[in-house]
Structure formats: C-alpha cells, structure tokens
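Appendix B. Extra example for self-study. Work through it before the problem class; the solution is given directly after the inputs so you can check yourself.
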Amino acid sequence: MAEVYRLRTDPEHTAPAVPLTDYQPGGTAVQLEPDEDARLLVPHLGALKRIDISFPKFREGRGYSSARILREAGFTGEIRAVGVLYVDQLSFLVRAGFDAVLPETPIDPAVAERTLTRFPFVYMKATDGLQPVWALREQASA
Amino acid sequence: MYRYDEYDQAIVDARVAEFREQVERRLKNEISEEAFKPLRLMNGLYLQLHAYMLRVAIPYGTLDSRQLRMLAHIARRYDRGYGHFTTRQNIQYNWMKLEEMPDLLADLASVEMHAFQTSGNCIRNISSDQFAAAAADEIADPRPYAELLRQWSTLHPEFSFLPRKFKIAVTGSKIDRAAIKLHDIGLELVQNEAGEIGLKVLVGGGMGRTPMLAHVIREWLPVADYLSYMEAILRVYNRHGRRDNIYKARIKILVNDLGAAEFARQVEEEWALVKPLGLDPPPSELARIAAHFAPPVLDANAPVAIDLSNAEFANWVTVNTHPHKAPGYAIVTISLKAPGEIPGDASADQMDIIADLAQRYAGDEIRVTHAQNLVLPYVRRADLFDIWQVLKAAGLATANLDRASDIISCPGLDYCTLANARSIPIAQKLAVKLAPQEADLGELKIKVSGCINGCGHHHAGHIGILGVDRKGEENYQLLLGGSGAEDATLAKILGPGFDENGIVTAVEKVIDRYKTLRAGPAERFLDTYRRVGAEPFKEAVYG
Amino acid sequence: MPRLLTGNRLETGDVLWWAGSDWSLHLKDAVAVDDDGEALLARLLPEERINDLTLIDVDATPDGWRPRSTRERVRAVGPSVRPDFALPSLPVEAI
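Solution. Structure tokens for the complete assembly:
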C-alpha cells in the first residue's frame, strides 16, 4: 500500500479499523467490505471517527453507495477508500463522500489536484454540497 | 433540439481536457494499460481487431445538420471515410488512433457532442423513439425526459462503477419503437385522466446471454419525482446486483432473482430515503429542456396530395415514409440497407448529403434509428420527390423499411474482438437473396448478431441469427418469433446451427414455408409464426 | 505447431506481428516464436507499449502463415467485407 491521500485537515485518526463483524459499540474505526450493509453502522456514527471502505477490485462500485449512505445519515468523520483505486477516480470518490484514499499505487498529488478541479460544474446532487447545474440555472433565471 | 448552455459546454470541454491528459499519461507510460483501459472505455474507445474503435454518443438518436457534417468530417479526417450507425442509435468509427483521440473529441465538443459513457459499467447513452415529436401516435415528446436523464447520469459519482452496463430507453408512444421492454430500464410516458404526464417504469429487460422482458414496477411515476426514483433503482442495483459473475451482473438477473414485486418494494423503500434529499430538479428545469425540443415552425398549408405518377417514387413513399402528426407532412426513413451493402454504414459523402437535406427540407433534424437507419422527421410531402431524387443519386433511396432486406447487423467478427462469427456477410447475402420478393413478404425483421452479447438484437428478430464458434468454425443458429415492439417476445432457437451458406438456405426455407402457411397477404411472418408455432418451420428446415 | 506473437500498437491500434527483432504490420513478415514465445511475452508485457499481446497458432503453408482461427485471419487481412482495405499477406477469400 502507498501513503494515504487525505483531503481532511483534522488530525488523522490512526486507530486500526476492525472488521464490521468484530465491531463493538463505541469503537472508533471500522472496515466495511463491499458486500456489507453500510446502514448497519448508522446507530454507531456518533462514536465512529473513521470508516474504511474496501475496493478489492477496480470494478468494485458498491463502496460509492456505502459512502453516500453514510454521509446521507449524517456521518462527518473520515471515510477512507482502501484498495485498487486510481487518481482518475478521485472526483467520483469525493463526490460520493470519501475524504481519504489509501490506494495500492501512489497518487501523484499534482495529478490529483488537477483531477479534483477539472469539472467546473456538476449535473447532479451528491454528498459534497456542490450545487447541480439545474440549481445554478434556476438561480440565474430568478 | 437541445442546445448546450455554458454549463453543458464547460462540462464537455473539461472532459476533453481530462482525456487529453489521460492519453498523454498513458503514452508516456505514466499509467498502465490496466488503469487506462477503463478510462478510455468510459470515453467510448475500445481496442478492436484492427484498430481502436470510437463510439460517439448520439443522445436519443437526435442530430442536427451541423453535427452530422461533423460526423462526416471525423470520418474523413480521422477514419477511412465512413462510420457505422449502431443499434443503440450511436455511431462507431472503426479506424481510430489513440494519439488522435483528444483532437477528435475536441472537434466533437465544438458541435455539442461527446463520447461520455458509451462504454463501461455505467449508464449508457439514453435511447428513444426515432419518430419523437413527429409521430401521429405520440402522447408527448420523450426527448426532454431523456435529456434530463442524460444530464443526471453524466459522471454520476455513485453509478459509474455499476456491476455491469446500464441501458435506459424512453418512449412517448403506445407503439414502441424504442424496445423499452428490452432495456435495463424502459420508460413510457403515460397520461392520466386529468391530462397530466407521468411515467410507467419497466425494469429488468435485456437481450444478451439471458434474454428477458422487462417488468412494470410502477404504473405511474410523477414527473416531479423522476430522478430520485431513478436514483433509488440504481442504488438498489449497485448495492445488490451480482458482481461475482459478469454474465449474471445485469439488473435483469437481480430483478429475476428477487422477483419483480420484491425488487419494486426495495426500490420504494430506498426511494423513501432518498426522495427528501432534494435530488429532483424543479419543474422549471424540465420546462427549460422541453422548450428546446419545440418542433420547427411547420407550413400550415402544406399540401397533402402529391404527384405519385413515378412508380418507383410512389413505392418509396409507401414503404419509407410514416404519417406525421402535422397534415401535409411525412416522416422519411433513409435506409442504410441497400442490399449487398454493410447495414448501418454511411460514407462521409452520404452523411453530408443527408445533412444538406435535413437543413433544407426537414427542420434541420436527423434521427438515428435502432434499426440502423436515419430519419428526416419533418418533411413536407410536397418536398418528397426532390428529396427522393437526391437520395437516389446518392444510393440512399432503397425502399425496404422493415422489410426482409432491412436487416440489423452488429459489426461481428469483421471488426469486433468479442465476436465469434461474422455477421455482416450473412446480412449481405440474405438481403441480396430476399430483396426481389420482399414486397410480397411485407414486414419482416431479420436481425443478426455475431456473438451471444446480441448487439444485433437477434432475440428480437422475427427471424434472428446468432453467430457462434463451433470448434473453430463459424456457425449460425436460427431463431424465430422475436419482437422488440410493443408486443415484445423473445425469439426461440429452432434447432441445430448451420454454416454460412446453410443459414442462408435455412432462412429461405422458413420464408417459403411462411408463404404457404400465411392466412392472407396481410398476415406478417411473425403473426403466422405465432399462430402455427415452430413445428412447421422446423419441418421445413430440418425435415 | 508454429506460433506467432501478435498485438496492437498502443498509439495507433495497428495490428502487429513479431518479425524477429521488431514488429511488422504484415503477417507475411512474421517469424515463428515457438518455444521462445513466453519469454518474449514476459519481456514485452512490462514495457506496456503493445496491447493485447497474444501467442497464436498458425500453419505453415506454401503461401505463408495461415492463422488457425478465423479471428486471427481477419486480423491479418482486415474486415472481409471491406476488401478495398485488405492487407496483402493473405487473400480476403482465405478468411
């Protein structure tokens, strides 16, 4: 594994993430596998500081839903994508609610910066608070 | 038709810049092919047998003349002078170079076009009725709803790594020209007693290895909640669709495993959670989009009666035009199926000619059909003769719409890495053989695929042909009785397969038997098959 | 049975045949790799310059190499439905 690429400014919560099956109420870091239901964590979001979501394969896409569900449930701690991930997926990850990535191959920060600022507008609401273009259009015509 | 505003243009331009940089990184070996391949696929770029192939999105199959001229320019500048219109209403170019792709995509962006999500496990180009806004049988133009979906699904952060590709079709008519029962999601605009428009939602249709017809999971979806409901469907699929087996990863398998009722229940449950998040645009957004699709100003005094004394012209009018909702107008289908030619292929010169016709006579619009033909949707009947003469000179006046030589064919093993057998030569041979008697046969839809993935829609063919590999030899299975229309059915395999010549003979035998069995000249092959079943045809072919 | 090494050039997608020390666009230039195929693959794969590197089975005929599979014959010649683009190594009819 390479270094964690982090978009948060708060200190990193370094406790090891325990598998969901071993998770005890009050635990602060947990690891969610693709086939595990993110909604099981909703009662524990107050205690959790970091949730790691696994991407064992590039094709794996369930983690995007998991992250979004956790943000929709109000989680404000770190959601870290862990596994086979590339810099070019960053904007999808961030919009879905991830704010840290631990990839297998290192992320070039310069490319990451360009990737994250590439698209000036978005078409749909997600968890990052960006206004979709339909809202911008609405405001422009108001 | 839809015009980009500054936001749409900025997103497409950013995509070009992004891919330019990704290509550069790949050419410099800064990223591996493993990491790059999904990126190029999400920009529609495949590596096929002979070269790269680029699939350009034609959203809901609608183009204007400026765009079609650009497609012609691309064929000349970057390809070998032609393109292939596909069964997903897109266009493919067969001789692409990776190093030229960024410039090509920039050219496309200059006419508000792109190749977003024309491949990959994401929401693909939205398809629709090629007669939208022109058909006499339509409730409402489906394209504003399709454009809303296009925008919603473009670079969707949650649904860009789905278990498998995802295809959505929208129609505004009871007569189904968009094959909505054979899509992952099919949407039909419906009207209630108060005259309001809503959507009927079908899920879980598809062809390929495990063909299935879609199930209705909601009879009435209010337009205001349209996108949040789509979001709910996609989330259920993204979370629970199978990822352990690529052949079982489409949503149809999930719907089938859960049962349509349980799937619908899960969608409603998810919808209840996501609806309050404010995912749906206000009605003004749909109204803004819909305003773009207002038909051109039509001539209220366009004459209905026209001179049909030229028999060849009169026949073309009968076969290749449809009734228009405006009196004195017609919908023209330009056949890209001259017998012996490659189905769906058009040369750059032909594209330019059609663009000129659209601009001069047809409200500046062209449509692409899933049967790989082109449509001029707003034509004064009084202009038909002039148009026909131009088309005839360009080899584009074949009068065979929906007839035996109007054959759908995927590129097959002549181009495609996935194919097991060639499909185009079969279509060519059949078209040449059957053209002389096709007027007598009436509507007959023959569809040829070169592999089980079924891009040639063989399961929806009245007569379907599937190319397979049998011990290293090309072999062809014969299927009968399919339909992709409102009366959708899946074609069934008749018996053992044939070689290239054998399949042509077998189809001829089926047709000969049909001629002896049909109840009258109005009974189509499909109707006869449905009435008498497979047995008489089995006997004709194998007996 | 003789084996050839083939692939597609990264920049252009062109079909390539291993011709002993470099690549050729033409099947007729191909040199059988036989037992050296795996070693050659192991050397070329990490270079990441040629996509879809594959070893294929061919027969030696008086007219030159004939790939065993239809797919590889199509790759060697071009689309059978566009003889105007055919490459010279095999006649289109040989597909």
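Self-check: Chains C and A do not touch (no CB pair under 8 Å). If your reasoning did not lead you there, revisit section 3.
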